[in-house]
Amino acid sequence: MSQPDLMRCIEISAPGGPDVLRLATRAIPTPNAGQVLVKVDYAGVNRPDVLQREGKYPPPPDASDLPGLEVSGTVVATGADVSWPLPGTSVAALVAGGGYAEYAVADSALCLPVTGTLQAEEAAALPEALFTVFHNVLERGQLKPREVFLVHGGASGIGTTAIQVTRSIGAIVYATAGSEDKCATCLRLGADLAINWRNEDYAAVIKKAGRGVDVILDMAGGERIQRDIRLMNPDGRHINIAFLEGSRVELDLMPVMLKRLTLSGSTLRSQSATAKARMAEAIRQQLWPRVLKGDIRPLLHSTFPLEQAADAHRLMERRTHKGKIVLSNNSK
Question: For residues 209 and 193, is the Cβ–Cβ distance under 8 A?
């Protein structure tokens, strides 16, 4: 399938605020062995993109310097040793960078098929959240049916996905969010309890519900970590994936010892290609069928044309959105 030599993309001209995101023209990348070239329809916008723009989250050495960690579109070329997906296949893909562009290179092992009623716009909003939730909640957290799961930031892109995934395996799901409207969204997606942390002491509300928490996915950090430790059941697992409220905290670790708790954390982008390929295969088997059936779907908040990436970042930084923000190459 032929394609032009040049593409539009969004570059980070210098570390800084949203205005440093600039529309530019570059040569279309060439896929290496085991990779495919995707003509991008949509790209997900994620908080790591904001951190990269600010100079706080550099891409891995072998990744594109362009922001963008997930895309959907059509495969138009392949490198050597690729048996699937072949040109013409509609896919969603996790990428280590380069998503804010008209074309992006992806590892074939990290592509997921887009079929049935799943729309390309929805598909672009799934890989980063699904990989994150699968790895941290189901693998590291070992969440089991009927256990209690708590997600901080329940109305975020990852939070809305986590609610649906954990509900689908039979967990009891609690969420915190920053407004009544966001709490209503969490309940609509399947949470059993949603707490506006700005107006209520979430720990007191959960204690009143009568059950402790077995697994916590925390994007906030800060003083919540100590409160979470007090909430957790024996052998509970607490996983941090971001620190919007700070990563430096003073903790009383005695409850960790007495209750045999596990405090953990991870990032996705820096993990090896082998590790991410293993996750992708497990997601294909365990979660992607539920996506294609419609049991798990991203909550889409806004779609911006590629050239308005700065506006998309401004929206993300305001933290008023619910669900995912995506960029489109279909609105020129």
Answer: yes
CB burial of 234-247 (b: ≥16 within 10 Å; e: otherwise) equals: eebbbbbbbbbeee
Greatest Cα-to-Cα distance within the chain, rounded to the nearest angstrom: 63
Amino acid at position 23, single letter:
L
Parallel, antiparallel or unpaired: strands 172-177 and 193-196: parallel
Q: What number of residues does the chain have?
A: 332
Q: Which residue has the tokens 């399938």?
A: 1
Instruction: With a cut of 90, say whether residue 2 has pLDDT above it.
Output: no
As given in the structure block, the two tokens for residue 64 are 């594109």
180-214 burial, b for 16+ CB within 10 Å, e for fewer?
eebbbbbbebbbbbbbbbeeeebbebbeeeeebbb
Instruction: Please give the pLDDT value at position 331.
Output: 52
Provide the pairing of β-strand 172-177 with 148-152: parallel
Phi, psi of 69 (to 5 degrees): -110, 0
- Using the predicted structure, report yes or no on whether residue 332 has a pLDDT greater than 60: no
Asked whether residue 3 carries a pLDDT value surpassing 90, the answer given is: no
pLDDT digit string (tens) for 164-185? 999 999 999 999 999 999 999 9
For 77-102, the three-class secondary structure string (H helix, E strand, C coil) is EECCCCCCCCCCCEEEEECCCCCCEC
Contact 154, 160 (CB under 8 A): yes
Comparing 330 with 89, the larger pLDDT belongs to 89
